[in-house]
Amino acid sequence: MLDPAGLYDVTPDSVTVPEGLPLVAGLTGFADAGAAVTQLSRYLLDTLDHQVVATFDTDALLDYRARRPTIYFDRDHLTDYQPARLVLYLSTDEVGQQFLLLTGFEPDFQWERFTAAVLQLISKYKAKSMTWVHAIPMPVPHTRQIGVTVSGNRAELIEAMSVWRPHTQVPSNALHLVEYRLQELAFSTAGFVLLIPHYLSDTEHPDAAVKALECVSAATGLLFPTDQLREDGREFLGKIDAQVESNPELARLVGTLEERHDAYMEGNPLRAPFTDEDGELPSADQIAAELENFLATHHSGDDEPSGL
């Protein structure tokens, strides 16, 4: 790995980081179905006490032309420039347990140096584990609990929580590389991939954030306030259900997703989860396309879920 020197700045010694804390991470960029990581990070920073421990060099890691920061044009002058940030925080959960939180943008450049920097910070603060979360779209119904795929070397979490264990190649993100390097060091690490319904992947799905928090809690023992997110989730799914119930064809398609999901969860020997066995049913992509088309063309009120 490359030398991480100069890639981040540590906050002065006014912030004391105890040894043996868990590290929780979630970065946005490549994929964030249901805005799971975005909501997770925002919720933790909005609801929990936190202090900056280290700040990464945005100019070295971010492709500004691919992900342009925002600036506000106020009649005749510019205000409120908001550059992207990648920060390590010392945070405190609902019952006073401290943990390290790495959140912000996923680096576009220098992944090896970034990985070396994360490993250096883990060593510096003698963190005891790393838990990270991301989310991908899948042909699953919104009427079932959000499932997860678990990676890493926490066998007890994989056995208890991983509903899909594929043999496949996937496009990696920066935290995949961090996890890979930590596994080489036999360091305790767990990655949670949330499986979000295709047709809700471009929305802020509150239950995705709840599931992310539940995964972090299962891996770390940390406790988080989730009442507001759960209430938002009930309201959000109620609106989705109303849309589905108003259209018989859409209801049939969601029913097909439910049948496939339930068959897989019951141990039906399908070649892969949530896909056809004999080809008689529409493909997952066709179902997702139908749902997306319907939700995109049936906007009839301001109370519909944002982004549908």
Report on the structure:
The protein is α/β, with parallel strands linked by helices. It folds into 2 domains: 218 residues, PAC-like subunit (Rossmann fold), CATH 3.40.50; 67 residues, no CATH class. The protein has 9 helices and 10 strands. An 8-stranded mixed beta sheet has the order 1-3-6-7-2-8-10-9. A two-stranded antiparallel sheet has the order 4-5. Strand 6 and strand 7 form a beta hairpin. The longest helix has 19 residues. The C terminus is likely disordered.
Q: What portion of residues belong to β-strands?
A: 15-25%
> What kind of sheet is the major sheet?
8 strands, mixed
Total strands: the figure is: 10
- Describe the global form: globular
Mean pLDDT: 88
End-to-end CA span: 43 Å
- The arrangement of helices and strands along the chain is EEHEHEEEEHEEHHEHHHH
Strand order of the largest sheet: 1-3-6-7-2-8-10-9
Tell me the structural class.
alpha/beta
CATH superfamily of the largest domain: PAC-like subunit
Helix content: 25-40%
CATH topology of the largest domain: Rossmann fold
CATH architecture of the largest domain: 3-Layer(aba) Sandwich
Q: How many structural domains are formed by the residues?
A: 2
The tally of helices reads 9
